[in-house]
Amino acid sequence: MSDIGFIGTGHIAAPMVRFLAERGHSVCVSDRNAQTAQELSASHGVAVAAGQQVLDRSDIVFLCLRPGVAPDVLQGLTFRADQQIISVMAGVSLAALAQHCAPATGFTLTIPLGYLEQGGCPLPACPDPALLSRLFAPENPVIGVSDEAAFGMHFAICAMVPGILDLMNTGAGWLASQTGDRESAVRYTCQLLAGFLSALPPGDEDQLFRERDALATDDTLSLMMTRGLRDGGAHKALESALSAIGQRLESGP
């Protein structure tokens, strides 16, 4: 088991803290978000301390700060050369981490989502997946990405999640307007997509096309939907949003 610290204890950090604590690791979280930190202490027995105390007692350190405040927070902390640093901060490069966290040199970038706690959350890891695999696999698949620029684009795809949720909410709202039952409309929409995706076998590069075409055959409602979205510009809007996010990531936080 490992001594693990978290600098920044919010929505992204909390599920990782619970996952790691439940697996027997010794976890200490910073007191920047006092309410969340105390809730984690009460529910999972993790320690709560000031930032430097977290570092002093940890061999593995998760950086879960908002990118805009990270430089100011990190410059006031003293890291050790032997510490392994895992950053979940979008747009903060390996070079920036090396500057902020010197003399530490072991860095890993990843992108967790809250359902990591239940398992099944893919974790891109750059440049080396070994540490994340030790901590979070096999419950969560770890995907090695050796190129930092390619890793950054995974943040753009991750940003699709709230976008898709927004579209699902629109669909559920339309269904509710037809049935008069908002609760059932939301439940049906969510379970329909969740069940379909969870039933998919491990994918290959053609899986999305294959599954789409299996549903959207000639003269079907599914084909009406795929054509309607494409003709309405949904795909171009998605590509435009992804490109804008990618450009923002390349420019840094």
Short description:
Helix 7 crosses helix 12 and helix 8 (160-179) packs across helix 9.
Description:
One of its GO terms (biological process) is L-proline biosynthetic process. InterPro entries: NAD(P)-bd_dom_sf (IPR036291), P5C_Rdtase_cat_N (IPR028939). This protein has 253 residues and is of the alpha/beta class. It has two domains: 3-145, NAD(P)-binding Rossmann-like Domain (Rossmann fold, 3-Layer(aba) Sandwich); 160-251, no CATH class. 53% of the residues lie in helices and 13% in strands. It is built from twelve helices and eight strands. The protein has helices at 13-22, 34-44, 51-56, 70-74, 94-100, 130-136, 148-158, 160-179, 182-199, 207-215, 221-231, 234-251; strands at 3-7, 26-30, 47-49, 60-63, 84-87, 106-110, 123-126, 142-144. Strands 3-2-1-4-5-6-7-8 form an eight-stranded mixed β-sheet, with helices on both faces. The longest helix has 20 residues, at 160-179. The radius of gyration is 21 Å and the shape is globular. The two termini are 34 Å apart.
